[in-house]
Amino acid sequence: MESASDLNIELITSPANPRVKFAASLRDAKARRRENRFLIDGAQSISVAIASGIECTEIFLSQEALDLPDDQIGKLMKLSEALGIRCRGLIEAPMQKIQYGQQDQQAIAVAIPSDTSLKTLPSRSNITVSPSSYELFLVLDRLEKPGNLGAAMRTADAAGATAVLLSDPTCDLWNPNAIRSSLGAIFTVPIASGAWSEIYSWLSERSVRCFAARTDGKEPYWGIRYPSKTAIVIGSEAHGLEDRWKKQEIHPINIPMFGKIDSLNASITGSILLFEVIRQRPTH
Fold first, then answer.
1. What is the rounded CA–CA span in Å between residue 193 and residue 191?
2. Which among 12, 236, 258, 229 has a CA at the least distance from the CA of 137?
3. Do residues 98 and 108 lie in contact, with contact meaning Cβ atoms separated by under 8 Å?
4. How many beta carbons lie within 10 A of that of residue 82, not counting itself?
């Protein structure tokens, strides 16, 4: 396995290094927006991101990772060399400066956000022009917590969702918590973000039928025959879905609950509903 010296990796020893200070600043949402950059924590997530087409501009590796690289770090080092991504080694103090809280990551990357426009979504996903093709969308309306977004992305990845649509999101898509909790799924599932009206119009134009998860819905989710083009719409835990998702064309569905709490985590709700849609579809 190649060592740091074999790859001529610079070793940074000061937390005041300009590259370290720049990376540390990206823990703040304002800096991410201003610089159009974000951080990816962990060798596995970085590798998944690169494999999914995310452009990484530099990778920081802990001195421990450089001295005794495991298979994941070794593969990442070779991948970065092949792609011309600059790797920098950090001793403990500067590595701690760019890490989050008590996280002990051996690799942290600076990356460029990908396109999340509705306009480019067809070219970034397996959406086709065929009216008989199967399409499954997860719409997250005004989702607030990055951790819930990341967990919902894992659900969408597991369900093979066509895309995740963020309707008027209030949390930052590139928040490190969202990325970390997604375990890389935030890079593997196509994402589009926009105003709820834009997303609803886009789905309607594609003849995608929307099913809105509501605690006051009258029909249980298992009593529906989901069409080939389906969108599951889920609101935030704090406020649920707003009345704008009560259009006549949007079918309200309910997950019956038998306890004293009438709310489920958004990712759990998404899991139940997405996998019911999948269960009904022919096996390919």
1. 7
2. 229
3. yes
4. 8
Beta bridge partners of 212: 233, 252
Considering the entire predicted model, what is its pTM?
0.90
> What separation in angstroms does the CA of 217 have from each of 201, 221, 251?
23, 9, 9
Tokens 């065929």 correspond to: 130
Query: What contacts 119, CB < 8 A, 6 or more positions away?
Result: none
Would you say residue 90 has pLDDT above 80?
Answer: yes
List, in sequence order, every residue forming a beta bridge with 5; answer none if it has no partner.
none
Strands (E), the chain: 10-12, 38-41, 55-62, 86-90, 107-112, 135-141, 163-167, 191-194, 209-213, 229-234, 251-253
Which domains are seen in the chain, by residue range?
Answer: 10-112 (3.30.1330.30), 121-280 (3.40.1280.10)
**Cα–Cα distance, 249 to 28 (Å, whole number):** 40
Strand order in the sheet with 38-41: 10-12, 86-90, 55-62, 107-112, 38-41
- What digits encode the pLDDT tens for the residues 128-150? 666 668 999 999 999 888 999 99
Find out whether 155 and 183 touch, Cβ atoms under 8 Å.
no
Q: Could you give the C-alpha distances from 222 to 41, 45, 246, 279, in angstroms and in order?
A: 38, 35, 20, 10
